[in-house]
Design brief:
alpha+beta; 4 domains; five-stranded mixed beta sheet; 17 helices; rod-shaped
Amino acid sequence: MESKTGVRKFDLNVEKILEDWEVHHGIREIIANAIDEEVLTDCKPMEISKDREGGWHFRDFGRGLKYEHLTQKESDEKLKNPHVIGKFGIGLKDALATFDRRKIKVFIKSRHGEMTLGKSEKHGFEDLITLHAYIRPPSDPKFVGTEFVLKGCTAKDVEKAKDLFLIFSGEKVVEETKHGAVLERKGSSARIYVNGVRVAEEENFLYSYNITSLTKAIRKALNRERTNVGRTAYTGRVKSILLACGTKPVARQLVEDLKGYQDGTLHDELEWTDVAVHACRLLNSLERVVFLTPDDLMRAGYIVDRAKGDGYRVVTIPENVREKIHGGLDAAGKPMVDLSGFQTQWNKSFKFDFIDEKDMTPREREIFVMTKAILKLAGGKPKCVREVKISKTMRIDPLSLRESSGLWEESTGKIIVKRSQLESLQKYAGTLLHELCHAESGTQDVTGEFEDELTSLVGAITARFLEDEGE
């Protein structure tokens, strides 16, 4: 309907809706539309300013608002672009209705025309009063973009609206993935954004997230308010973002956070085992690390010291995570290094540091020359034993998780005894006879067969000693 002054009335078909919306919710829709226009047209970023009379200006530099945009319909252009915020043509009408209800004066300017708001009879139904946009010809046909001028809103309203958007949050991107971005958390709560608009907050998340690849659950959960979206809607996509990360900062911080499970400070993302495992696999491919459980740390102090001495960083992980990484490969296809993995690597790279008899101290030599006498007590040196050697260094024992005192090396026919055992005849004899049992029985420690062999050897030595005493 056009008046004599050239003003046309556009019926917004709005009486009273969204009573819970506040002024900042309406401003949110203006900002969201401006950001969408920037995405769609690659124009320069929007500007927000305040004039001397107290009016707030929101200016984008896109194609300019038309009255047709006030109708409620899906936008094919926006539906085809996964990175825009609005899609259904509802938000702007909701915003205008909110401004009217909250007594905010609105002026809209573009090259297509200028608009204000007012109440008027519904055409053909004069008993119904609805909200109308009053549309006038453009005062500047060359005006670039769209400018909203709001009078009656406060700086607090504007800041609350800006606070709903990632571009104003100050949260830095830690890593981008095909599903979205990991963001550096700021403030008391982490934030969940969808295409740059905050939809939820999480008190116990390690990071904030911007989801840019929407799932069906997220699309369904994004209501007109775009707030209070439940965790079940976005959990799967947050996991996908983390599992797609491949940089050291994210992996390291996730793994470091695993320490919190012992004292109850673990962030929620690390409660997801697949995320914790991914972080470990990623970190293992990027650094020299060894993953140990709290129990490992208590019983494997020697290995911890050895690992640190060899340039490894010791990372504490829960038992359920260790079970998942044990025997597996990291993101680069290399073996994961947990306790047994470190032992395996260490023993494979290990080299004995043998010492000749002439280089022993007088006391060590005095004990070592008793080797034949000790073996004679056990019935003599078996054929499978070629020689007895002394080494300064030894492999890690899988049971004690320390350097072994002695070793039977079947492939070379050597009994190897650690040099420290030459401190006393008792230590040396005990270790030598222990390894002799392994050589003769061909069995490992803590087996019934080895216990039988050891019992037999003790009996034989005791019998010979008593017979000699009897003579």
